Prior knowledge:
The structure holds 2 protein chains of 2 kinds. By secondary structure, chain A is of the alpha+beta class.
Amino acid sequence: MRxxxxxFRSLFLFGALAMILSxxxxxxxxxxxxxxxxxxxxxDLMMISIAIMIFVFVIVMAIYAFVxxxxxxxxxxxxxxxxxxxxxxxxxxxxxVIPIILLLVLAVPTVQATFDLADQSTQGDEGVLTVExxxxxxxxxxxxEGEELATSQDLYIPTNERVYLNMKSSDVIHSFWxxxxxxxxxxxxxxxxNTMYLEAYEEGVYWGHCAELCGPSHSxxxxxxxxxxxxxxxxxxxxxRNVDPEAQPETTSAQEGQELFNNNxxxxxxxxxxxxxxGPNLTNYANREKIAGVFxxxxxxxxxxxxxxxxxxPGNQMPANLVTEEEADKIADYLLExxxxxxxKDLPTQAPDEE
Amino acid sequence: MSTAVAQKRGxxxxxxxxxxxxxxxxxxxxxxxxxxxFFLIGGLEAMIIRIQLMKPDNDFISAGLYNEMIxxxxxxxxxxxxxxxxxxxxxxxxxxxxxxxDVAFPFLNSLGFWLFLFGGIMLxxxxxxxxxxDAGWTNYAPLSTTSPGHGVDYYVMGLQxxxxxxxxxxxxxxxxxxxMRAPGMTYxxxxxxxxxxxxxxxxILFAFPxxxxxxxxxxFDRMFGSAFFDxxxxxxxxxxxxxxxxxxxxxxxxxxxxxxxxxxxxxxxxSKKRLFGYSAMVFATVLIGFLGFMVWAHHMFTVGMGPxxxxxxxxxxxxxxxxxxxKIFNWLFTMWGGQIRMTAAMLWSIAFIPSxxxxxxxxxxxxxxxADFQYHDTYFVVGHFHYVIVGGVVFGLxxxxxxxxxKMFGKVLNEKLxxxxxxxxxxxxxxxxxxxxxxxxMGMPRRYWVFLEGQGLETGNLISTIGAFFMAIGTVxxxxxxxxxxxxxxxxxxxxxxxxxTLEWAIPSPPPHYNFVQTPLVRGLDPLxxxxxDGKEGMTPAEPLGDIHMPNASILPFMMSLGLFIAGFxxxxxxxxxxxxxxxxxxxxxxxxxxxxRSLKDDLGHHIHKEELEADIKKGVAK
Lengths: 355, 623
């Protein structure tokens, strides 16, 4: 019941509509089940517009049904010539003015919400987090401004705080969309940087999509927003800052994997640090929700992915057959040991899939 | 001379006749056949898309091919199916409705058609030469400018050529309607279909140049090393989006307005009433056309234009709902108190009202800029624009084709088959697209090659695919109807519906190639109805019977278009090998040579003599 719409929600129509629509879709993905400020505001706006539209539709359909039933030509009436009415001024005025009023009712909250979501008044204030989001074919990079840390694919944010996103793209246009938290915003290449904000009300793993056609693997460019409590978030930042990229893994296979990784993969990928390479930053990889954004985090998938990325995500930049299957197996062992933080592990959902 | 050609009855002569014709009625046939063919190709692409999305993680087609499918489906349906089918109707009907013997520029009319056709063929050739365009029908830079292969080059050249044809066609109808109206046919007596053609032509005149400019920039970026859309060299990708939508949004109204006009004529005819609120309808049409230019950026709410621009475009977009609402209510009140006859044409029109109302309402929802942050580029948008384009444009095309078929081909489409085609299509349409609104809100972005399992999207997508098959069945039945009618159909009377109100129903079906033996005198709105109510058989002539001056047929429009077609391939492939520049020079040579011929050779047309006209009247092919 946050937001200015709260007081209207008890009205029957809105309540009923919200009830029906919230049955649609899965948690943490559907825009109809908001878990954040932006998404909730937008659902309210949708409800107003749907209510107005249903009102109009019912009226149109009532006249429509009446006309079709009442004025069908009946047998034997083929020669009847109806009265040729020219029109009716007062009717014209009525169906011009009433829609204008209805649209004004919709326009006012629309403009309010549009400005609300574009608000950047607290950005840069002490303690307000800004993340630089970069869209790439086909992965996301998240750089925490002033924090010396970065992640890819999984964006960690604290709950109940506004987190600003400064968004751009390194190649083509992408669009960042987490339906349950907020609306989408394009990431443009070049100078046109966009800013939006997220505010999650509850802890959880929220599913994100790329929503602007960006090439063959457009539909495989998913990501997640992981909202944790502010205390846990601080812990996570601490953990991430203390990552030692040179740390010795436990098993021999993983140690060999580390060697192979350093020789073959480090020119594009990074572990620890905040810089954006050609490929995603793999810090805390063992805790990734998905492999390459969409695949189940099993070792088998990871090996497949390392050897044949082109087959799993057509058109992506990672070279295929850079290492052999056995080598990939070791690299996978290494990557799956990159368990840099406990934060977020206890969150109930891996993904909407499991419901 | 041309009558002599028309009398020869060989297949070769018939083909030559159509290649060279400048008769608006034959050009209408050409537009109808080629537009219909592209409609089937676009429909096939749609079916492939729906089969791919039938179940989660499907691998019916590859990701790259899928992107080519969606790009070509959109491009084909908009530019190569809807546009020519609308031009088919405009060509078949507008000159008749205003009492003219042809359009203002018959030669240009033919040129417009051939340019469109060669452009359309060019686009589709890309399937066989290494891949179709794959950057979406919106072709956003830099995805398009960096797309490998030549697919996007075909998009640029094909649309440039066919776009020129459309622009020429638009100008032609504008001049025709301004200059060629019969005596007494004042602006406020024009049938709504003519009015909407007039407004549409104006929109074409102002909207297509924006596309032309955009395509030129893209052509130079891709083929000649310029950097309008290359951010690394100081270009800007948002420019393409603006240019595209400054064209693209009016294009939506270019598509729907003529059908609004057709619906107005059909509702009025089959309710046996004059159109309710004629002047309000005209005003609403003009207003929609005008506002259509003020709202393009509502396609770009998520681009990052800022809250001020977003709000302005949101409110302007909402404003369009007002004149559209005026139209819906006036149609309803046209039927109110009338005698509604449920022909196939009327059935499609009746179905249009709720379908389009839903499309319009989701349009208003999308106009709410902030809420669009959720809807944008999801299946909600896909659902919305198919409700508008299928529920409005395609329903309208079917309605108008049933209505004017006898005037175009001299035979009434079979009514029973017409209704059989309607029901599966209508049910399939709602099955396919209604659920897509919810898919979008549930988190399914558009242009997704696959959706993942367990996201609650399976059922909706399956229903949608099933619906698509129903639509295909409806289309097939319509095609069967066309064949059946052409074989078995009975010859249609001048006014086969018996309730004709406008001028086209005053002359035989199909009309002689000069349309009117004597230019009719128009004495009011719905001129034929006016005469009928005065107890007269037909129109009162506005001139004595005399020789009629008609334009000559010409192969030059075909040659000009062929030249550009050849040059187009030259432009595309000279990037790989400069030997292809030969094709550029040969093609441009053919085009410019044809233009030179046209300029230097006097072609004064020919006369149909009074005696021939009298003979035609006696035979009953003219009146």
